[in-house]
Amino acid sequence: MRKVRAIDDTLHILSGKWKVVLLAHLCYKPMRYSELLKDLNGIAGKVLSRELKELEINGLIIREVSDGQPLAVTYTISQYGKALKELTDGLADWGLQHRERIFNADKFEKPVGVTR
Q1: Contact present, 48 and 37 (Cβ < 8 Å)
Q2: Beta pairing partners, 77
Q3: Angle at the Cα of 88 from the Cα atoms of 82 and 92, rounded to 5 degrees
Q4: Which helix (H) or strand (E) holds 2?
Q5: Which positions ≥6 away from 74 have C-beta within 8 Å?
Q6: Residues 108, 87, 42, CA angle at the centre, nearest 5°?
Q7: Contact 27, 88 (CB under 8 A)
Q8: C-alpha to C-alpha distance for 32 and 5, rounded to whole angstroms
Q9: Can you state the percent helix, strand and coil of the chain, rounding each to 5?
Q10: Is the CB of residue 18 less than 8 Å from the CB of residue 43?
């Protein structure tokens, strides 16, 4: 039961369509707000701002503001956030396998009760 509660806590922190994807992007390199907005097709600026703020509050990313003109804000994954890289890699691996399964459905065992 303790592990189920821990999963619930984790999902609460990572809830929403964009947080895990944001973390995955930032695992590879620091990115500016405008880069994230461009790379995440379909996310609204207001939503991106909210998601980044929540990730920062939970210590998963670091927001760095440069002193130059114009001001530049860069987001970097924190050491604490890097602990989730194994999770994002696992999700990516599973997603690739699932995509392969869908595209090659005739080669895989059908689930019980499913007919094609």
Answers
A1: yes
A2: 61
A3: 150
A4: helix 2-13
A5: 30, 31, 32, 63, 64, 66
A6: 85
A7: yes
A8: 34
A9: 60, 10, 30
A10: yes
The model carries a pTM of 0.81
| Six token digits for residue 38 | 């461009």
Token look-up 């939970």 returns: 58
| Whole-number pLDDT of residue 59 | 97
Q: What is the mean pLDDT of each run of 10 residues along the chain (116 residues)?
A: 91 92 95 95 95 97 91 94 93 92 76 61
- Which has the closest alpha carbon to 37: 56, 14, 18? 18
State the amino acid at position 37 in one-letter form: L
Q: Which residues contact 64 (CB under 8 A, 6 or more apart)?
A: 30, 73, 74, 75, 76
Label residue 70 left, alpha or beta by phi (over 0 means left) and psi (-120 to 50 means alpha): beta
- The burial class, CB within 10 Å (0-12 / 13-18 / 19+), for 84 is buried
Q: Which pLDDT belongs to residue 116?
A: 54
Q: Tokens at residue 40, please?
A: 């995440």
Yes or no: say if 16 and 55 are a contact pair by the CB < 8 Å rule: no
